Amino acid sequence: MTILEKYDDLDEEAQEVYPYRDFPSLDEAQLQAFEQSNGILLPPELREILLEGNGGYIKEEFLRCDDEDPDLLTGIQEVFGISNDPDHWMCSIVPLPKWVTFKHEIYTSFPTVSELESINGPISRYFVISGDGVVFHLLDYTASESSKAVCYLDLVGGDQKIIRLGDGIASVIQIER
User: Fold this and answer.
1) Per-residue pLDDT, 76
2) Three-state SS for 18?
3) Does the model's pTM come out above 0.70?
4) 67-94 in b/e burial notation, b at 16+ Cβ within 10 A?
5) Which of 53, 60, 102 minimizes the C-alpha distance to 82?
6) Of the four listed, 39, 61, 67, 83, which is most buried by Cβ atoms within 10 Å?
7) Residue 112: CB partners within 8 Å, gap ≥ 6?
8) Are 46 and 127 in contact (CB under 8 A)?
């Protein structure tokens, strides 16, 4: 059973809310090249999603959260894919500082990288896997090249602290086997 919702299967309202992401399929060699160039190892569950559809919209029944505040997952409607196209970087898995810098250049009220680092410590080893430009879901590679945690960050609301949601991608997405 697939965990991805195909764009054509979304209702008309959802198609307006969640724009189409037309990323080409990936193979194992492309995943390994991405990992090598970023010095990370993607979690097996995320690799499965990327090989299935290079990211996509997650069916609601597959979402879960081990955290005490399930509202923290409100923004995880899709998992970003991998693309080298500069026009698609905003819906691609990228290091968090790229997003933060981009948002601050457009909206000076958004925090800078150094402001976020004063709250959270170095952020260069967090990778954005989902988000809407304000709220992000991240993989935490601060301790090692293998992600051990999925985190949440709201750049506008709250105290801008990176909040740990659970261990690995399987803590927020239930993948049927």
Assistant:
1) 59
2) coil
3) yes
4) beeeebbebbbbbbbbbeeeeeeebbbb
5) 53
6) 83
7) 100, 101, 104
8) no
Place of tokens 């979402």: 63
Residues forming beta bridges with residue 127, ordered by sequence position: 95, 139
Strands 56-58, 135-140: pairing kind: unpaired
The values of phi and psi at residue 31, to 5°, are -60, -45
For helices 44-53 and 28-38, the axis angle rounded to 10 degrees is 130
pLDDT digits (tens, 9 = 90+) for 118-163: 999 999 999 999 888 888 889 999 988 876 688 989 888 778 999 9
Length of the chain in terms of residues written: 177
Q: Which two tokens stand for residue 55?
A: 């990211």
Nearest to 155 by CA among 53, 12, 177, 126: 126
List of long-range contacts for 106-113, beta carbons under 8 Å, 24+ apart: 109/156, 110/155, 110/156, 111/155, 111/160
